Amino acid sequence: MSWKYDVVVVGAGIAGPIVARNVAKAGYSVLMIDKKWAIGTPKQCAEGISIKVFEKYDIPYDKRFINREIYGAKLYSPSGYELELRYKDVSGVILERKVFDKMLAYYAAKAGADVLARTEALDVIRKDGKVVGIKAKHEDEPIEIYADVIVAADGVESTIARKAGINTYAPPHEFDSSYEYEMLIEGFDPDLIHLWFGNEIAPRGYVWVFPKDEDRANVGIGINSDNPKTAKYYLDKWLKENNIPAKKLLEVNVGVVPVGGFVKELVKDNVLVVGDAARQVNPMHGGGMAEAMEAGTIASKWIVKALEEENLSLLQNYTKEWWETDGKRLERVLKVRRVTEKLTDEDLDLFIQILSGADAEKIAGGDYGEVIKALLKHPKVLLSPRRIKLLKELL
């Protein structure tokens, strides 16, 4: 069986449906496929996202996939110092990804895209050295899908980007391993997300509690994937040390998260790579939903222009625009991650202690300059050449 479309999108996570929706809206024929039986399942995500994305990317604020509104965050240092950032207004939400991803696919279908679950991309089809489509299997039947433009939105492993000859290699150190329980847990303010830091708690990463109900939350951890011990080991250890029984587990999720190694060439001829497949993820907190939406928006804009003008070389502008905008920002964040990796537990204790007295609004706004200035004024920082050097690396 063979089909022909203007655009085929492989993967219906976050980036894929944004591209499919935007391109279909412009009147082009789009097919989006996903290998899962049910789009959105299983989730591999802590499910938190900023409130800003709904308006920015034209996504309905639909209570069906919004579990809970969040008003800020609470950070805990290795010795238990706390820094609370609380706002008057909602700053983020905890999603139900299983519903959210499916609804994003639904919006794409409503805009005119065809969507097929349980359809796995296996390889690209080449003709005269050019990629002209993909080989896939739908419900175990082999199919060939021909398309002018192919979008690899197929996650961390991204078969299609690799088969198309896009270099998505990143060293193991640029990935985090994550492990998460959706579980019953009590005693944490459900209006805030909670984050614990420490080299013994979560090397290079953090433990998170993202509340879904007063007594139910996503409780997870991310650590460097080249760690000799597993993420599960550290998460179970943390639960035990905090006397939190892990006996009411509703779900277990395991994943690999890119936290660096952004793909340099996002386009090769008529193949584009977006989202986790392109490592478009925030290296500090490992979140990639907003990044995938941004990349999907830029990619779809250039796909539409290229199809309108029947000039596929315009697709290269996606690489250019992404690197000049979000890529630039994420490179700065990566710099911050590389510095924070060098912090000792004493540093983390001290910084969280100092900052809890500083202007929390500025910190929460991500104004690193102000944060660093506040830290640099402190005598314990001024007396340590190592700390001064680390902080100056960030400026």
UniProtKB/TrEMBL annotation:
Note on how the cofactor is bound: Binds 1 FAD per subunit.
EC number: 1.3.-.-
Ligand binding (FAD): A15, D34, C45, A46, G48, R97, A121, D276, G288, M289
Annotated Digeranylgeranylglycerophospholipid reductase catalytic domain residues: 176-257
SUPFAM superfamilies per record: FAD/NAD(P)-binding domain
UniProt keyword Secreted, yes or no: no
GO biological process, alphabetically ordered: glycerophospholipid biosynthetic process; membrane lipid biosynthetic process
Gene3D superfamilies hit by this protein: D-Amino Acid Oxidase, subunit A, domain 2, FAD/NAD(P)-binding domain
Superkingdom to which the source organism belongs: Archaea
GO molecular function: flavin adenine dinucleotide binding; geranylgeranyl reductase activity; oxidoreductase activity, acting on the CH-CH group of donors, NAD or NADP as acceptor
Segments forming a coiled coil: none
Family in the record: Belongs to the geranylgeranyl reductase family. DGGGPL reductase subfamily.
Reported function: Is involved in the reduction of 2,3-digeranylgeranylglycerophospholipids (unsaturated archaeols) into 2,3-diphytanylglycerophospholipids (saturated archaeols) in the biosynthesis of archaeal membrane lipids. Catalyzes the formation of archaetidic acid (2,3-di-O-phytanyl-sn-glyceryl phosphate) from 2,3-di-O-geranylgeranylglyceryl phosphate (DGGGP) via the hydrogenation of each double bond of the isoprenoid chains.
PANTHER family in alphabetical order: DIGERANYLGERANYLGLYCEROPHOSPHOLIPID REDUCTASE, GERANYLGERANYL DIPHOSPHATE REDUCTASE
Protein name according to UniProt: Digeranylgeranylglycerophospholipid reductase
Gene source species: Thermococcus nautili
